[in-house]
Design goal:
mainly alpha, 24 helices, globular, transmembrane helix, Proton_antipo_N
């Protein structure tokens, strides 16, 4: 574990090489650099994992620290670059390395342009380096540096085709949303440092438990600032724009961001500071409200999306909320298990969609496709397994157990409303994904020409398809003693599993009735008055962009116009105009008539006497 710092240095060096020399390196050499970088990281993580297990004592939590150098000193506070590895950070490092390897391998088979390949691998390596720094940091300041590195990397990856105005706009929009949220995170760091006078993560958690009262005002504001910062990465409503704008990026980029980066970085942050969040009950109420709104919002919008990338993005956004539902019931181990399940399902769905778009010559409109289940049976099977996971297929998929435990935990904690919303979310995601599958694979074929893809592209899909099944449910995770472990009461849970199975079957039946036939009842619903109103609202994403335009953009442009006209100079001109007007009136009184002057003196004397008497 003495070479742990190489997990940050190796992808950073690879990023610098590709950025500086990528345009002058052959495509084959770029692939070698990109794949070998992530291969070295996976090999290094294997050695770290073996070393960690060899040094772990039963019933204890091993914490390894490595001081590198002192960065700077402010007063009595010293900020050092040092790394810390425990069971929680080890789990996240392994997950990120594994999924990055699959995505990098897929990108090597999927991308054809040399420019696309070198920019993807370069910015992807910067992203991985930032993620590893975020996870291994032992103090909040260094963690924030890694957090900002993730934001910058997301901006660069989303804007790979920055020459296109729409892509550039989306990248800037996503970056602004993340930076606004990051500002709140920075406020939280200032607050906790002001209270505890330390930035070391282990020390501040211990001091918070000793010195800060549960449900106190300061702990609420600290956790609130942290949660808003997390929302910017995770994409919870109303910070979902940073998540949804990733749909403009190439498919390997979408997979890396939606399946790995945004969910795992935000999930790690909350798990790392779970003792602080447990000290504020009010913050969990806010988390539950926003997670519930996000599920309904994403589910409704996904039902009316016709572009494959947008449809998949909103489906994934709805699934992220279940992680926060697990946080609400404070079952941290369950939340980590669902993160793994989400990453598997999301990556499988996105990579399958990548191949679908590729073979269809870049066509994304689902109503311009059809009849593909005989031509591409392996791709059809991958979509069916993705759908089975999203639908929480009873007793077959790992998502059935993780989602079921989350919903059961909500109901056991007297949160029946949230449990009902979670069930509705499963129903909406079932309708959305089956709408895509029935339309693309079962409707009448419309395309005549297709593109062949390398068979090696299916290897990551096969691996992910196997991992999505119930075989890999509840993997052993070395996080005992790091996050609180809560035993879930499973008594009478079979009734909930039967209810969940009934919701899944109901969703499949409704989807079959509405979407299996191209001339189905959905057309009547869409043309009904209430149907038109709802579809218009959902297509406009609840008019959220118009609301932002009204609340922020329009006032900002108005202020810009005022500043453009130099309001200070305008104020000076008003004063000068007023002085000239008064001076002109005074000049008119100087007419040289003695009677007028005497009357003015008498009037002024009377006015002065009145003021003296009244005052």
């Amino acid at each position: 574990m003495n070479l742990l710092y190489l997990t940050i240095i190796i992808p950073l060096i690879s990023f610098l090489i590709l950025v500086c020399l990528g345009r002058h390196i052959r495509k084959e050499n770029i692939l070698v650099i990109g794949i070998s970088t992530i291969g070295l990281l996976c090999l290094l993580m294997l050695f770290v994992c073996i070393d960690y297990q060899a040094n772990t004592v039963p019933d204890t939590s091993l914490i390894y620290s490595r001081f590198l150098w002192e960065w700077f000193t402010v007063g009595t506070t010293k900020v050092a670059i040092s790394l810390q590895l425990d069971g929680l950070s080890l789990v996240f490092l392994i997950i990120i390395s594994f999924f990055s390897l699959l995505i990098y391998f897929f990108a090597a088979c999927y991308l054809t342009s040399s420019n696309d390949i070198y920019t993807f691998f370069a910015y992807g390596n910067l992203l991985i380096s930032s993620l590893f720094l975020l996870i291994l940091a032992d103090n909040l300041f260094v963690l924030f540096v890694g957090w900002e590195g993730v934001s910058i990397s997301c901006y660069l990856l989303i804007g790979i085709y920055f020459q296109k105005r729409k892509v550039n706009f989306s990248a800037v929009k996503a970056f602004l949303v993340m930076v606004v949220a990051d500002t709140f995170l920075l406020f939280g760091i200032f607050l906790i440092y002001n209270e505890l006078n330390t930035l070391n993560i282990r020390e501040l958690i211990e001091l918070a438990n000793e010195n800060l009262a549960v449900d106190s005002e300061i702990i609420f504001w600290i956790t609130l600032m942290f949660f808003i910062g997390v929302m910017g990465k995770a994409g919870l409503f109303p910070f979902h724009t940073g998540f949804t704008e990733t749909a403009i990026a190439p498919m390997p980029v979408m997979t890396l961001l939606q399946s790995v980066t945004m969910v795992l970085s935000s999930g790690y942050f909350i798990l790392r500071f779970s003792p602080l969040f447990m000290m504020s009950n009010d913050i969990f109420d806010m988390i539950s409200i926003l997670a519930g709104i996000t599920i309904i919002f994403a589910g409704c919008v996904s039902l009316v999306q016709n572009e494959i990338k947008s449809l998949i993005t909103y489906i994934n956004l709805g699934q992220v909320s279940y992680i926060f539902f697990a946080f609400v019931i404070q079952n941290w181990v369950l939340s980590l298990n669902f993160m793994i399940s989400y990453s598997v399902t999301s990556a499988l769905l996105l990579l399958s969609s990548s191949l679908l778009i590729k073979v269809c010559n870049g066509e994304q409109n689902i109503y311009k496709l059809g009849g593909l289940y005989r031509r591409y049976p392996l791709l059809y099977g991958a979509f069916l397994l993705s759908a089975a996971s999203l639908c929480a297929m009873p007793w077959l998929m790992s998502a059935f157990y993780t989602k079921g435990d989350i919903i059961w935990g909500l109901m056991m904690n007297n949160k029946m409303g949230l449990g009902t919303i979670a069930l509705i979310g499963i129903l909406l995601s079932t309708l959305s994904i089956l709408r895509l599958i029935f339309t693309v694979f079962h409707h009448k074929q419309k395309l005549e020409h297709f593109t062949t893809v390398p068979r090696s592209s299916y290897i990551p899909l096969i691996v992910l398809a196997i991992m999505s099944t119930a075989i890999f449910i509840y993997l052993p995770l070395p996080i005992e003693g790091i996050v609180p472990v809560i035993d879930l009461d499973t008594k009478n849970q079979l009734m909930l599993q039967l209810l969940l199975a009934a919701v899944t079957i109901l969703g499949i039946l409704i989807a079959y009735i509405l979407f299996f036939d191209s001339n189905s009842e959905i057309n009547e619903i869409a043309h009904a008055p209430i149907g038109r109103a709802l579809f218009k609202l959902w297509r406009s994403e609840w008019r959220f962009d118009q609301l932002l335009q009204l609340l922020f953009v329009t006032p900002y442009l108005y202020l810009v116009q005022l500043i453009k006209k130099d309001p200070i100079a305008q104020w000076n001109r008003v004063i000068n105009w007023g002085v000239r007007k008064v001076n002109f009136q005074i000049e008119s009184l100087e007419n040289g008539r003695l009677r007028w002057y005497m009357m003015s003196i008498v009037a002024g004397s009377i006015l002065i006497l009145l003021l003296l008497i009244l005052i």
